[in-house]
Amino acid sequence: MAEEDKSTTSLPAPSEPLQVSGSQSGTHQPSQSTVEENNRSELISRARIFLRSSQIQSQDVFAKRRFLLDKGLNEHEIELLLRELPPQLPRVPPRTYPQPLPSGLLTLLIGLARLLTWVAGGSAALLLLYHKVLLPRIVRTAEARKSLKMHQINLLQKLNASLQSFKETQTQCYAPLPRPVPHKEHSTFASCHSLLDVLKQSETQNLNVNQLPQITLLRCAWEDFRALPGCADSNPRTEELFQVLESRIPWLVSDEGLAFERTLWDVLSTTPVFKELTSQDSPEGASAPVRWVYVPPEPVVPTAFISSLDSLSKVISTFQYPTTSSSYQYTLQAMTEFTGYISSNLYTPYRPPSIPGTTASSIEPADEMKKEIRALKGLVLNRRSFMPTIPRANIPSRQVP
């Protein structure tokens, strides 16, 4: 029995079957019920010993139940056996912890120090390269740009000063000259006092309507309106003025004419010779009609300088050059011809005089041409040697900063 208990308690797991002694199974008792009860009690005692073993207590409850059911116990007996067991404490795991790895702090510090050394060495090399190579070039470039900028600023200041002095000198010199009269009519159309006269003048000069001066058209339309019966002392409104223009010039009704009328309206509203007059007799609540009056520009009084120029031009136009020749004119002409003769014979080859009774050899055309070329060359050299020297101004060479 002790051997059976020992074999039962040495089971490692719930799956290990319980061993039953063969001696008892082989013997037959006289009473079968007594034998079954003894076997049943012996099986329960073995199951109790089995469940109380230290190796089985840590096993799973379901595995224990399944094992006991396989050995022949029922559910009621298994439940009673499990209740008889003392309460199990939580199992403490075995202290088989893995050994900690060796610390890599030293390796990390060494790598960090090596990295810092490389960074410091590279930074020192870069700083040395910057101070030895790049910094001097940057400084020279900055100084060159600064000097170039100062030079340009000085040149601009000199240019502004010269322009200012030129402007002041121009203002002083142009002060005596007459001022241009704004909106001055051409002398050809200034004598016209009606639109018919303007149209006749345009036909004479082959001009289109859009090429006529706008101020002349507006002035003549204003005069034509005042020439109407009952309108001698009244000024026209804008509609009346343009109605007179359209009645005299039918071209203004076309598309191009309407565009030209806009130009006439701009001239009418911006030219100072046409002024607006608002009538005071308009009813209350209604906008007062605008009437236009033509104010001729004041005549320009000529300055003393202009008067002197006009008198000088008149004197020059009536001046007659003297026709009497000087007493030295013939002498000057003779000396000029003599100088030309000497220059022409200066490079002429020597020819012996012809002997009476002999015929002179005929001169070939090539020799005659050479003679003329030598004479012309002598004349040019003679004039160049006697020409006065022209003084030339010394232009200082510009120094590049």
UniProtKB/TrEMBL annotation:
- Please state what the protein is called: Peroxisomal membrane protein PEX14
Question: What does the sequence similarity comment in the record state about its family?
Answer: Belongs to the peroxin-14 family.
Tell me where the signal peptide lies: none
User: Which superkingdom heads the taxonomic lineage of this protein's source?
Assistant: Eukaryota
- Places the protein is found: Peroxisome membrane
Composition bias, kind Polar residues: at what positions? 8-36
State the species of origin: Lentinula edodes (Shiitake mushroom)
Keyword Membrane in the entry? The reply is yes
From the broadest rank down, the organism's phylogenetic lineage runs: Eukaryota, Fungi, Dikarya, Basidiomycota, Agaricomycotina
Under the heading InterPro entries, the entry gives:
PEX14, Pex14_N, WH-like_DNA-bd_sf
List, in alphabetical order, the Gene Ontology terms for molecular function in this entry.
signaling receptor binding
Q: What does this protein do?
A: Component of the PEX13-PEX14 docking complex, a translocon channel that specifically mediates the import of peroxisomal cargo proteins bound to PEX5 receptor. The PEX13-PEX14 docking complex forms a large import pore which can be opened to a diameter of about 9 nm. Mechanistically, PEX5 receptor along with cargo proteins associates with the PEX14 subunit of the PEX13-PEX14 docking complex in the cytosol, leading to the insertion of the receptor into the organelle membrane with the concomitant translocation of the cargo into the peroxisome matrix.
Q: Name one GO cellular component term.
A: peroxisomal importomer complex
Keywords in alphabetical order, please.
Answer: Membrane, Peroxisome, Protein transport, Translocation, Transport
Instruction: Indicate the segments forming the Peroxisome membrane anchor protein Pex14p N-terminal domain, all copies.
Output: 40-84
Q: Which GO terms describe its biological process?
A: protein import into peroxisome matrix, docking
Region Disordered: list its residue ranges: 1-38
